[in-house]
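Need a sequence for this fold. Nothing fancy.
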């Protein structure tokens, strides 16, 4: 029996791999394990056409066990997390596949603090999903209610606008909303800083989310920044929990440099608690070198924002993130929020009175290449002697400052290969060689 939960909830091709029956049974499982009769949960979605279908299924499942469901409609994932942690709800479910194509969708469960679940609770929910029919039912009088909660989003918007007003800037900004959830609130939040904001890719039609735009395809933003003479650009992903920045010349700022400029600013002001920055194993060695040279410490975790947050909670760090643009700033949010990341970047640019290109240059990066290899047998890579021998030989060729990281994807049937080292040509060659061999051996 295949595992449902991956590194970021349950994902699959909507209505094919991920059926509405799974959403219904998840609604029942969440109602049984995290809520209970008389309690309420909150449910949101991004702009995918399949979102309405999955929300309806969740409502059906949860209300069948006597739990009220507040439907907040299209919202950023961080807004759903904010509402789930407000104290009014036993749990939250976000219907979104984040940065994935429109045909995909996903189900992310959050607890009453707005946090992603521990692995053991996800395991419990998965077992409950498989035996959903055994969870019982309630009589007509006890059935939960489906409640229009769209007005609740105003709470999130007010909170973020208050944060934005603590930053003053007159920069000209282009915001790419990826035809996703950020369309609803992004421009208002950034404009509260005093910035002049122009928005692109903010016309969702249910099928164009992340399509050639947003954080996964920042080329459109880069072109718009140059064409319009803007000072800076920000691209969100489909559910607005990631942020990618572009400088005035149209150059995309590497995600590790984005995290790094926030960390270096805090180190300089003595407000990076414990001097610690939490990043994943994928983050560039150049980032680690820059932080350590400034007197800080880098703590690495497995890939996945929930592991970043766990690392922050254990270490007491206030800042963490992934090179994908998923950044957690604990005084503002318990999850990644692309708009909060953009605001904090604007705060640093304004305070230091330097363009983002100069700030990013303070974090020189090692050459790094990543490959995603479609692999039917992605979990068998460690047991393949030919592949293991090739990885060992490649690691030796990179030398002491190089490294190779191979891992199965947690969101799709693929093996992910990362190669990093001082020689860009060699890094690219080795990444291609390992990816090609992995494709041959694992399919």
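Here you go.
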């Amino acid at each position: 029996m295949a595992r449902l939960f991956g590194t970021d909830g349950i994902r699959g091709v909507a209505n094919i791999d991920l059926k509405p029956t799974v959403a219904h049974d998840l609604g029942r499982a969440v109602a049984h394990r995290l809520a209970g009769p008389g309690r309420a949960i909150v449910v949101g979605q991004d702009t995918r056409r399949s979102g309405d279908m999955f929300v309806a299924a969740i409502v059906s499942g949860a209300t069948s066990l006597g739990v009220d469901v507040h439907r907040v409609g299209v919202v950023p994932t961080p807004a759903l997390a904010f509402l789930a942690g407000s104290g009014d709800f036993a749990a939250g479910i976000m219907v979104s596949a984040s940065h994935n194509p429109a045909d995909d969708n996903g189900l992310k469960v959050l607890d009453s603090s707005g946090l992603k679940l521990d692995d053991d609770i996800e395991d419990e929910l998965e077992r409950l999903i498989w035996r959903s029919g055994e969870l019982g039912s309630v009589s007509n009088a006890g059935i939960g209610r489906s409640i229009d909660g769209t007005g609740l989003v105003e709470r999130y918007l007010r909170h973020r606008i208050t944060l934005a007003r603590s930053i003053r800037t007159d920069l000209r900004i282009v915001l790419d909303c990826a035809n996703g959830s950020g369309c609803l609130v992004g421009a208002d939040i950034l404009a509260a800083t005093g910035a002049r904001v122009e928005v692109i890719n903010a016309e969702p039609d249910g099928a164009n989310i992340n399509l050639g735009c947003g954080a996964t395809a920042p080329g459109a933003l880069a072109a718009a920044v140059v064409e319009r003479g803007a000072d800076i650009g920000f691209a969100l992903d489909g559910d607005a929990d990631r942020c990618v920045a572009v400088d005035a010349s149209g150059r995309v700022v590497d995600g590790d440099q984005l995290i790094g400029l926030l960390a270096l600013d805090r180190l300089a002001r003595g407000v990076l608690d414990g001097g610690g920055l939490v990043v994943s194993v994928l983050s560039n060695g150049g980032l680690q070198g820059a932080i350590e040279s400034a007197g800080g410490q880098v703590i690495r975790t497995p890939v996945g924002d929930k592991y970043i947050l766990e690392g922050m909670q254990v270490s007491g760090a206030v800042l963490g993130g992934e090179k994908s643009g998923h950044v957690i700033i604990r005084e503002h949010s318990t999850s990644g929020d692309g708009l909060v990341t953009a605001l904090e970047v604007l705060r640093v640019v304004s305070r230091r009175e330097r363009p983002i290109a100069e700030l990013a240059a303070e974090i020189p990066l090692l050459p790094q290449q990543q490959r995603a290899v479609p692999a039917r047998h992605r979990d068998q890579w460690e047991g393949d002697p030919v592949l293991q021998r090739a990885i060992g030989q490649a690691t030796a060729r990179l030398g002491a400052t190089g490294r190779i990281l191979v891992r199965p994807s947690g969101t799709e049937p693929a093996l992910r290969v990362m190669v990093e080292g001082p020689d860009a040509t060699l890094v690219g060659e080795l990444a291609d060689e390992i990816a090609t061999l992995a494709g041959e051996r694992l399919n």
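For context: The mean pLDDT is 94.
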